[in-house]
Amino acid sequence: MASNIYPHTLACTSKTTFRCPSNSPIWTINEIAESVNGKILKWGPPGIICTDTRILAPNKNQWFFAITGQHFDAHEFISPELYGKGCVGVIGNQVCNNWDKGFVQVEGNGNVNTLNSLVNMACYARNSRFSGVLVGVTGSVGKSTTKSMIALALESLGVNVFQSYGNWNNRVGVALSLIGIDRAVDIAVLEMGMSGKGEILELARMARPEIRVVLNVGDSHLESLGSLEDVARAKGEIFQESKLGDVCVLNADDPLVANLTVPRGVRKVFFGWRRGCDVRLVAAQVANGGLGVQVVLEKERE
Known about the structure:
By secondary structure, the chain is of the alpha/beta class.
């Protein structure tokens, strides 16, 4: 075996800018209706998607997606007062009386859970609007930091990169991240979190990452999963439906991660401190007054 020592260092600082929801790409009303299997009841102009009336902004065309859940119903916030906040339409089950802006009724009629429709829009965005490469990152700790480090490293190569906003790593967060990816993006980096079994699998099905990363396994979900081995299996759901051509990246320093099952024929890449890793960390130190870290990597190759 031979190896390449990368003499340069990779500086990962706080320069990477999060993509705020207000910077999301434009959706036409026809795209909105098609993506949520909805019905156009009132016409509205193209705009960005927003799920929080508190961040609506004047002079910005925004469609308010009224999410319903087990303990909340965003339809309660729909009123003509939204007009002055830049709202040009609503996506949801219903609108208030005398609503004269755009309205796309999800799934045609009835009182349905619009969270499912948000997921449908996210899948539409992934399948029909984004043609780049998607990186999915999960692990018990370090997801947000690693996501930002990956994004910064890619940006240093001149690649147009999108990274999920903040710690948007649950069902809603991943859906909004997918909806917010601009068509011009080359690589998107999303983090995926969980609180129980089956959740990572659902997020992976929604995002369909070509590069799937598991960082580590910790005790943060033992109350719902029971054992570290069960936590590892839940994290490993990100690999479950990977296909030929995808890359599965595993932490070789965590035995519970290193032993996760990957579908036959899918490429596995190991990283860590130990010798024999495909990408080995040789050295690391804090940089820029604690705002970043500098690393030296060694790449093993035949």
